[in-house]
TrEMBL record:
GO terms for biological process: mRNA processing; RNA splicing. GO terms for cellular component: catalytic step 2 spliceosome. This is RNA helicase. PANTHER family: ATP-DEPENDENT RNA HELICASE (PTHR18934), PRE-MRNA-SPLICING FACTOR ATP-DEPENDENT RNA HELICASE DHX16 (PTHR18934:SF83). SMART domains: DEXDc, HA2, HELICc. It comes from Ceratopteris richardii (Triangle waterfern).
Length: 830
DNA sequence: GAGCACTGC
């Protein structure tokens, strides 16, 4: 099996090298031809000639790098079952490779250029202008079959002449007053001509699925139309968004269009910021915020219309919302429900909402040519870099956006790109490389929004952040290697991991669309048309099916939903995930034997946190350290992005971090120390820099902390503080996390007590070299090993003191022959 | 002795 795989990889490698050599040869022949015929070139032709030479040079540099290819692509690492690990991408590439001799022969992003070259060689005559026109025809012919679905979209959706006219109209109206101008602009949106039809449809049906691509104006216009039609007399109109910035900016825009002050008639509501008032009739909010609102108003009584926007994104919150609003619609016939989505899932939504009719609104987007590779690319990083360079020297002006899976790849690509363009000086245009990913410090992120100087080209290297969360103007070329990192959750072990996965067709379409926002564009897909057609899933697995549902289950329980396993989910999560979440809630004492919420459970549900964190906070009351625990909860829920660890200063960063671990107090206590020290510096940014701490994360922790502190009152917890009683703080943590206990084994690894399995302390932990006998951990992650992240040492006696229903004396005795507890006592609280 | 896709409450 493995030797075969190796051999196959060798073949892929040889094949790609061979192809490269052929390309070079072809170029060389062409070059000689110029000289041989002694043709005088015009300035423009010379420029093209220079470009070609540069391409050649770049290709040669690429070929040198190929020598390291084999080792780079074929690491000798296997997973626990002995299968080849990590290189799932390789396996995928291999699958694609099978098809090389098949129908894909003509799918090559540079077929354009090759066709042109063949043509040139044949004619042995130089006619650049004519050749350019010709190559376009060739190219279109070659790719015709592959663009059917996007092409259909483009032809129907949008006509460039219309657009120009509309733009001219907008310009004309610029002379009118700002308000009048806005009103004119509203009328140019594609949705405008469907206004009456749409209102009629909403009037006729309780639930309507609205399909409209970005740019159709649905998010800003529909609530206004409904207001104009009088719906706001019966209650406010709500519109949910998956992201905070979207909710804010859309609300601001609509307030402007209606000529009212933001926060009055039009407002938005997001976490940490409620910009609404009694007057608010159009309310934009994040989907998570609406979920929270459900707790206080389970029938949405104050709303006459609820619009769930961007439903196709299928965030965890939208999926939960679907189940809830569908239920409400049954006993509130006066409530109108609008589900709005970009094209792909409309039928599915319609079926789910009892065959609700679908209303189509065309979008406004420029056409994007889709180009596929001829043969599969075994090394997409290299392929992406080469494609960037090729675009840079052969394609007209316009910025480039490349999708990578993470920071590491982005940094690698940046380095290679810099190395290959180094020393070319003025022979190629300036290339501005902009990396962008969520953990990049904000000042460096801002770089992508700077306008590209005349004559230069911006190359944005991005993670999935550029797929939905931010849009960059001026992008004309998208390079899509076809992978992303996806979270997956194993309910059996309770472990989370990030896995590099092929993207879905829907995601690929979204990525391609990024090239056509401001002008027609091109999308270079680094996989074959065949594999796009036959191997990629239609849609990404919705988040609800690959995440821990602890807090979702707690929230649904507090809404009084008894039978969660049969709850009407659009796509039900795995039963095991639900069962594990329920089990955990039992163990924590949030549910009684009948599966109903206990008083403790109701208090826990008040916090927008994982059940274990909530339990920890509620328990802190007893140990008189709520101040400290709230800080720890806030720091833990910010995630693992607190410590900044740049590649070139890892030692400094590690030293700085270890300062907070003095006394081997454990990671959670260290986080507390980080926060308190920061607070003492009066929340100094400078201090963060000096200690290699992410300012953004700390500010977030402060926001969360403030919110949690505000909620203490609601669950009747008196603020209390015991900053020097580490034991009390650790006991409070254990009250939430006794479920996550692990015991040291002879070989230095740990064994978890619940679901016995071998785990290790994460090397970033302050206790990684201390190895206490008993630990409680915050979470389990799989990377190169199974790691416990954020651990503290505990005394086993605490377990019996804190969770007597869960641990018996023999469970925590240290005799190594003792069998570890298995499925010990169900919850017997209350 | 390691690796942090992206949101959201």
């Amino acid at each position: 099996m493995l030797p075969a795989l190796r051999e196959a990889s060798r073949q892929v490698y040889l094949r790609s090298r061979e192809q490269k050599k052929l390309d070079e040869l072809q170029d060389a022949i062409l070059d000689e031809q110029y000289l041989f015929e002694g043709i005088e070139l015009t300035a423009k032709e010379k420029e093209e000639f220079r470009y070609k030479r540069t391409v050649l040079e770049l290709a040669k540099r690429g070929a040198e790098d190929l020598d390291s290819f084999e080792e780079y692509r074929m690491p000798e690492s296997y997973d626990r079952e002995g299968k080849v690990k990590q290189d799932r991408r390789f396996a995928v590439a291999l699958e694609r490779y099978k098809d090389v001799d098949g129908e894909n022969e003509k799918m090559n992003p540079f077929a354009e250029q090759e066709a042109w070259e063949e043509h040139q060689i044949g004619k042995a005559k130089l006619q650049f202008g004519a050749a350019n026109r010709k190559k376009k025809d060739d190219y279109e012919y070659v790719f015709e079959d592959q663009i059917d679905f996007v092409k259909a979209d483009l032809l129907e959706g949008f006509n460039e002449d219309d657009m120009e006219m509309e733009e001219a109209e907008i310009k004309k109206s610029a002379e009118k007053s700002a308000f009048m101008q806005l009103q004119e602009e509203r009328k140019t949106l594609p949705i405008y001509r469907y206004r009456d039809e749409l209102l009629q449809a909403i009037d006729d049906h309780q639930v309507l699925v609205i399909v409209g691509e970005t740019g159709s104006g649905k998010t800003t216009q529909i609530p206004q139309y409904l207001h104009e039609a009088g719906y706001t007399k019966k209650g406010r109109i709500g519109c949910t968004q998956p992201r905070r910035v979207a909710a804010m900016s859309v609300a601001a825009r609509v307030a402007q269009e209606l000529g009212v002050k933001l926060g009055h008639e039009v407002g938005y509501s997001i976490r940490f910021e409620d910009c609404t008032s009694d007057k608010t009739i159009l309310k934009y909010m994040t989907d998570g915020m609406l979920l929270r609102e459900f707790l206080g108003e389970p029938d949405l009584a104050s709303y006459s219309v609820m619009m769930v926007d961007e439903a196709h994104e299928r965030t965890l919150s939208t999926d939960v919302l679907f189940g809830l609003v569908k239920d409400i619609a049954r006993f509130r016939p006066d409530l109108k429900l609008l589900i709005s989505s970009a094209t792909l899932d409309a039928d599915k939504f319609s079926d789910y909402f009892d065959k609700a009719p679908i209303f189509n609104i065309p979008g406004r987007r420029y056409p994007v040519d889709l180009l596929y590779t001829k043969a599969p690319e075994a090394d997409y990083l290299e392929a992406a870099v080469v494609t960037v360079l090729q675009i840079h020297v052969t394609q007209p002006a316009g910025d480039v956006l490349v999708f990578f899976t993470g920071q590491e790849e982005i940094e690698a690509a940046e380095e290679i790109l810099k190395a290959r363009t180094r020393g070319l000086g003025s022979r190629i245009a300036e290339m501005i490389i902009c990396p962008i990913y969520a953990n990049l410090p904000s000042d460096l992120q801002a770089k992508i929004f700077e306008e590209t100087p005349e004559g230069a080209r911006k190359v944005v290297l991005a993670t999935n952040i550029a797929e939905t969360s931010l849009t960059i103007d001026g992008i004309k070329y998208v390079i899509d290697p076809g992978f992303c990192k996806q979270k997956s959750y194993n309910p059996r072990t309770g472990m989370e991991s990030l896995i590099v996965t092929p993207i879905s067709k829907a995601a690929a379409q979204q990525r391609a669309g990024r090239a056509g926002r401001t002008s027609p564009g091109k999308c270079f897909r680094l996989y074959t048309a065949w594999s796009h057609q036959h191997e990629m899933e239609d849609n990404t697995v919705p988040e609800i099916q690959r995440t821990n549902l602890g807090n979702v289950v707690l929230m649904l329980k507090s809404l009084g939903i008894v039978d969660l396993v049969h709850f009407d989910f659009l796509d039900p999560p795995p039963a095991e995930t639900l069962i594990r979440a329920l089990e955990q809630l039992y163990a924590l004492g949030a549910l009684n034997d009948h599966g109903e919420l206990t008083k403790l459970g109701r208090r826990m549900a008040e916090f927008p946190l994982d059940p274990m964190l909530s339990k920890m906070i509620v328990a802190s009351d007893k140990f008189k350290c709520s101040e400290e625990i709230v800080t720890i909860a806030a720091m833990l829920s910010v995630g693992n992005s607190i410590f900044y660890r740049p590649k070139d200063k890892q030692v400094h960063a590690d030293n700085a971090r270890m300062n907070f671990h003095t006394g081997n107090v454990g990671d959670q206590i260290a986080l507390l120390k980080v926060y308190d020290t920061w607070k003492e510096t009066n929340y100094s940014t400078q201090w963060c820099y000096e200690n290699y701490i992410q300012v953004r994360s700390m500010k977030r922790a402060r926001d969360i902390r403030d919110q949690l502190e505000g909620l203490l009152d609601r669950v009747e917890i008196e603020p209390s503080s015991s900053p020097n009683d580490i034991e009390a703080i650790k006991k409070a943590i254990t009250s939430g996390y006794f479920y996550h206990t692990a015991k040291l084994q002879k070989n230095g690894s740990y064994r978890t007590v619940k679901n016995p399995q071998t785990v290790h302390i994460h090397p970033s932990s302050g206790l990684a070299e201390v190895l206490p006998r008993w630990v409680v951990y915050f979470e389990l992650v799989i990377t190169t090993k199974e790691y416990m992240r954020q651990v503290i040492e505990i005394k086993p006696d605490w377990l019996i003191e804190i969770a007597p229903h869960y641990y018996k004396k023999q469970d925590v005795e240290d005799a190594s022959s003792q069998k570890l507890p298995k499925g010990t006592g169900r919850a017997v609280m209350d």
